[in-house]
Design brief:
Order of helices and strands: EEHHHHEHEHEHEHEEH
CATH architecture of the largest domain: 3-Layer(aba) Sandwich
Largest sheet: 6 strands, parallel
Helix content: 40-55%
Number of helices: 9
Structural class: alpha/beta
Radius of gyration: 17 Å
Number of strands: 8
Distance between the termini: 11 Å
Shape: globular
């Protein structure tokens, strides 16, 4: 059995426009702050060590009112501009056709992942879609990956598994879970020094198949 676990934002789909719009909505409504750019948001999200509430809302901790406003706004916003990266749908369908098991492990809340992947017409291809709200610790913890691997009754001696992502957190979670990381550079991070790098979605097929 072969298993491929995908990160979502910056790997399967481009969500930066909608995330930025919702962050700017909270900045304006709750903090009277000027808008930030998509580039700023992506750089903040990708930083290995960061305090997002400080970077986005200038608060030391993520205030409940900011979380609530972001999530209520993003619930409608998240499907307005989101797109699959070119070639992703074809790759997912090819993997499934070749009996490769595919799932999603995202640090986004599960409700948004389900909504966006449904909207983009690929939700049915995945066996498990799990977000950070379903575990005690999000990536770089391997907890989500363990949840998915346990679903498949993964055995390291007999099976092969990969974690595909655009972020150091994806790589760290893969290593902690004892599976192979594949770093992708078509999304939010344009380059990597990782051993296994895919520059285009179809390169995943060469690695996995």
């Amino acid at each position: 059995m072969k298993i491929v676990i995908f990160d979502m934002d910056g790997t399967l789909l481009d969500s930066k426009k909608d995330i930025t719009i919702s962050i700017n909505h909270v900045r304006e409504k709750n903090h009277n702050l000027p808008p930030v750019s998509e580039e700023y948001v992506v750089a903040a999200i990708n930083a290995e060590v960061r305090n997002l509430s400080k970077l986005f809302y200038e608060t030391e901790i993520y205030l409940e009112r900011d979380r609530e406003l972001f999530e209520s706004h993003y619930d409608a916003q998240c499907v307005q501009n989101v797109t699959l990266y070119e070639g992703i749908e074809e790759v997912l369908k090819t993997l499934v056709a070749k009996s490769v098991k595919i799932s999603v492990a995202t640090n986004a809340p599960t409700q948004f992942a389900l909504r966006m992947l449904e909207h983009l017409g690929v939700k049915h291809l995945f066996d498990v879609i799990i977000g950070a709200d379903r575990v005690a610790n999000s990536k770089p913890s391997p907890e989500m990956l363990h949840h998915i691997l346990n679903h498949y009754r993964y055995e390291s001696k007999n099976h092969k598994a990969w974690m595909v992502g655009d972020n150091s957190k994806d790589v760290l979670s893969a290593r902690s879970a004892g599976i192979e990381p594949i770093f992708v550079t078509w999304g939010f991070t344009p380059s990597s020094n990782e051993k296994t790098v895919a520059k285009k979605p179809k390169e995943l097929l060469d690695i996995v198949l």
